[in-house]
Every structure is written in C-alpha cells, then in structure tokens.
C-alpha cells in the first residue's frame, strides 16, 4: 500500500512539474493563449529582441562618438519602440505571456559592449545589429502566411523596415573596416 501511495505521489509530482513548463499559458491561468505554435514564439521573441535592440542602441547613443552610428541607434530606438508597442498590444490581446526585459544572449552582449570603447565599441555594436536584423527578418518571415490576419499584417508591415535597418547596418559596417 505504501508503495502504491508513493508511486501515485511521484506521478502527481512529475505531471505537476511538466505542467509548469507549458509555454502556451496566458497571463491569467484560466485563459489559454489565442495564437498557434507558429505565432507564439514570433510574438515572444519579437518583443524580447526589440527590447534588446532598444537597450543596445541606448548604449550606443551614450558610448559611440560616430555621428552615423548615433543616428542609426536613434532610429533603432524609435522604430523598435514603436514595433514593440504593436507586438505587445497584439500579444496582450491574444493572451500571450509577454516576456520582461531581454534574453540571456543579449544580456551577455550588453555586458560585453559596456566594456568596449571607441572603434571597438562601434564595430561590435554594428556587427550585433547586422546579426540581430538577419535573425529578426527570419523570425518575421515565419509568420507572413499565418492564419491570424493581424499577426500576418504586422509582419508584412514590419519586414520592409527590418530590411532597411539591415541594409543600413551593413553599409555602416563596411565603412568601419
């Protein structure tokens, strides 16, 4: 009898731990997200990467002496703040758990950039911008045919800006070499 009780308790514990790892949970535990498995990571990663672009660009405004990089950084702050609001509003309406702050990878990058100055800072910041925009374009392209029209429309609206950001970041990087 004790063995059956222990097995039952262990089973409950395992299922409880597994249930806690559900990525599709909504803010309110009684609600389920209203997006598919394609749109969920798009919204969550889109918000986090946008937050990271803003944080990194705020640092660039303070640390860079290059006027072109400062202008680029200000454009990043403006565009990604606006896009972040749109993504957050959409995620909220779809009951998606909205991530706070930036992800671990971007925290590491931010820490690394805070130790750089001058040309070293400028090169690393711009390389990160190129890399992040390549990833963002790929992320946004995954939902251009999503069944949720609002998600699809937001991706279609944002992609040209992301491509322009990438083009400008590549041009600035080429000048820094």
Automatic annotation (TrEMBL):
Signal is among the record's keywords: yes
Key words, A-Z: Signal
Top-rank taxon, per record: Bacteria
Residue ranges occupied by any DUF4142 domain in the UniProt entry: 42-172
Segment forming the signal sequence: 1-19
Keyword Nucleus found: no
Family annotation (InterPro entries): DUF4142, Ferritin-like
PANTHER family reported for this sequence: BLR2558 PROTEIN (PTHR38593)
Entry protein name: DUF4142 domain-containing protein
Source organism of this protein record: Mucilaginibacter terrenus
